Amino acid sequence: MKAVLVIGGTDSSGGAGLVQDGRVLDAFGCAARLVVTAVTAQGRGGVTAVQAMPRDIVLAQIAAVASLGPVAAIKIGLIPDTATGALLAEALPRLWPQAPIILDPVLSASAGGALRGGADFGALWSLAALVTPNLPEAAALLAAPEAPNRRAMTAHAKALRARGAKAVLLKGGHLLGESAADLLLTEGSGRWFSGPRLPGQRRGTGCALATAIAAGLAQGRDLPGAIVAARRWLRTTWPKAAVPAGLAA
């Protein structure tokens, strides 16, 4: 069984964060290794508190995971501050130089409320094999209006990749329409992934997608294949695994 390291925050509602990461990895037959960067309080009113973990606690968790053996992929979610990002950028390549990193640049919660102050991900941006922002996150990262169509999505993906990202998967779920389209932009090429929009509003979908992609890479799929498998899993399984409707705002 391949192990995947997931780094991020806890979500007291259970709708996103490390709890959801564990569910996804279990569904894909991967072992979860966890590093908590922050504890968040989230409920029907959105985010009410965020507490970043002290540096020594984060380092101790990383060392504990390293003692268990290799990890085949790394997914990073909530990074509460620049100092934590710098710590990860120094430690991860040293301990797991071959493990692809999926960076999901979480800035706010689906239910409302900021989770990170500022949008500078530092050296982690260029270390990641893939970054997976949604449209509001891309707009915040670029200090630009949110992309209203595919043409603007392409421009945003190019601008994000120009900042040093090896590949960008810009998630288009916030666009209006019956289908949901994501854009993968790598060096010299782009590819659209489209499919029926999931019914209703679901918390933690972006988190789950990034983790599912990490699982696919850990199991030997190439990047497009991992994305296809992750999107297929979301369409067929996610409605059954989603959090209660009352928390899906």
TrEMBL record:
InterPro entries: HMP/HMP-P_kinase_dom, PM/HMP-P_kinase-1, Ribokinase-like. GO terms for cellular component: cytosol. Gene3D superfamilies: 3.40.1190.20. It is an enzyme of class 2 (transferase). GO terms for biological process: thiamine biosynthetic process; thiamine diphosphate biosynthetic process. Pathway: Cofactor biosynthesis; thiamine diphosphate biosynthesis. This is hydroxymethylpyrimidine kinase. It comes from Elstera cyanobacteriorum.
